C-alpha cells in the first residue's frame, strides 16, 4: 500500500498523506451514512444517543438546531454501521497502510467521525493523541480518512513535523484536564505548523505523539474525517478508553502476539470527559486557533 518513501516520511515527520486511498465509489456509502446521522441530529437539541459508558454517542455544537445542524462527532461509528466497521476490520487501504507502518499484528483502540459543518465554530487546540490514550509502547497510529476535499480554507489538520520524536506534553493546565498543551507550547507550534491537505478519499496517517490542531471551518462546505486509532498488537492501553466500544482491543489484522512490549515513558494520567467528547474539555480554554 505505502511506498518506501511514504513509510520513511511517516517515521521522519510523524505524518504522511496518501492521496486517493479510496475512490469516490468507495466513499459513497460512508458519506451517505454520515448524512443520515446529520439528518437524524435535526430532531435533537443537544448531544444524543448512547455510548457503551452511557455518555452521548452524537455530539453537537452549542449552536446546533434543526435548520442548521452542527453534528461534530459520532463516537464509535463502527458499532452502529457496517460500512465503518469494515473500514477497520476488513482488509482495505486503511488497514493495509497501518500494517505497512507497524507490522502484521494490529489492534483496534477506538474510532470516531469528526465533522466541521459549514460555518461551524469547532476548533481543535494543539495536543498530542498519545496522552489521551497512553500505551505501553508508542507504535500507535491515528488514521484519518478524508470524507470531503480538504483545503486551507476548510479547517484542515495542522501538524508539527518531527514532533513525535520530542517530549510528551501535559494536557493538564492549572490543575484542569483541558485536552490541550500549554499556551507557550501552542505558540511554538503555530510557528512550525504544516497543513494536511488532500481530496476526498485521501488518508492521513499520523503518529499519536505528533502535535496537531485545526481551526474553524468558515466555508459553506463540510469537512468530515473518519478517525481510527490503531496500535501494534503488543501495545497495551495504560488508561481507560475515552471512546469506548464493544470492539476496543480487537485484533484488526494478524493475530494476538501473546506478549506485551513496553518502553520507558512518563505521561500524565488522562481524564475521561464528562460530556459527549473531548470538545467539552478543550472548551475550558479560551477559543482560538491553537
| Coarse structural class | alpha+beta
What's the helix count?
6
Average pLDDT rating:
93
- What oligomeric state best describes the polypeptide chains here? single chain
Largest sheet: 8 strands, antiparallel
Number of strands: 14
What is the number of independent domains?
A: 1
Low-confidence residue ranges: 286-290
Q: What helical percentage do the residues reach?
A: 10-25%
Beta fraction = 15-25%
Question: Which features characterize this protein?
Answer:
4-stranded antiparallel β-sheet, Jelly Rolls, alpha+beta, globular, 290 residues, 21% helix, 6 helices, disordered C terminus, 8-stranded antiparallel β-sheet
SSE map:
Blueprint: H1 4-13, E1 15-18, H2 24-41, E2 58-60, E3 71-75, H3 82-89, H4 93-102, E4 106-116, E5 124-127, E6 140-146, E7 157-159, E8 172-173, E9 176-177, H5 183-192, E10 194-195, E11 203-207, E12 212-214, E13 223-232, E14 251-253, H6 279-282
Antiparallel strand pairs: 1-11, 2-3, 3-4, 4-13, 4-14, 5-12, 6-11, 6-13, 7-10, 7-12, 8-9
Amino acid at each position: 500500500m505505502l511506498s518506501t518513501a511514504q513509510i520513511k516520511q511517516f517515521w521522519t515527520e510523524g505524518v504522511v498523506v496518501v492521496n486517493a486511498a479510496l475512490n469516490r465509489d468507495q466513499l459513497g456509502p460512508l458519506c451517505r451514512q454520515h448524512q443520515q446521522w446529520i439528518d437524524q441530529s435535526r430532531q435533537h437539541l443537544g448531544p444524543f444517543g448512547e455510548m457503551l459508558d452511557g455518555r452521548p454517542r452524537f455530539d453537537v455544537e452549542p449552536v446546533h438546531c434543526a435548520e442548521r445542524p452542527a453534528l461534530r462527532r459520532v463516537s464509535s461509528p463502527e458499532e452502529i454501521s457496517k460500512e465503518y466497521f469494515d473500514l477497520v476490520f476488513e482488509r482495505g487501504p486503511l488497514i493495509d497502510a497501518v500494517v505497512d507502518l507497524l507490522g502484521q499484528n494490529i489492534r483496534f483502540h477506538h474510532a470516531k467521525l469528526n465533522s466541521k459543518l459549514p460555518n461551524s465554530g469547532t476548533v481543535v487546540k494543539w495536543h498530542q493523541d498519545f496522552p489521551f490514550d497512553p500505551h505501553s509502547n508508542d507504535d500507535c497510529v491515528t488514521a484519518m480518512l478524508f470524507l470531503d476535499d480538504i483545503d486551507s480554507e476548510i479547517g484542515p489538520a495542522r501538524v508539527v513535523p518531527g514532533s513525535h520524536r520530542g517530549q510528551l506534553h501535559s494536557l493538564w493546565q492549572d490543575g484542569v484536564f483541558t485536552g490541550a498543551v500549554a499556551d507557550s507550547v501552542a505558540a511554538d507550534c503555530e510557528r512550525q505548523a504544516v497543513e494536511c491537505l488532500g481530496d476526498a478519499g485521501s488518508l492521513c496517517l499520523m503518529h499519536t505523539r505528533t502535535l496537531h490542531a485545526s481551526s474553524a471551518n468558515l466555508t459553506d462546505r463540510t469537512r468530515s474525517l473518519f478517525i481510527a486509532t490503531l496500535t501494534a498488537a503488543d501495545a497495551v492501553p495504560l488508561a481507560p478508553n475515552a471512546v469506548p466500544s464493544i470492539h476496543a482491543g480487537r485484533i484488526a489484522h494478524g493475530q494476538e502476539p501473546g506478549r506485551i512490549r513496553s518502553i520507558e515513558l512518563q505521561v500524565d494520567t488522562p481524564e475521561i470527559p464528562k460530556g459527549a467528547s473531548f470538545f467539552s474539555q478543550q472548551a475550558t480554554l479560551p477559543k482560538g486557533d491553537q
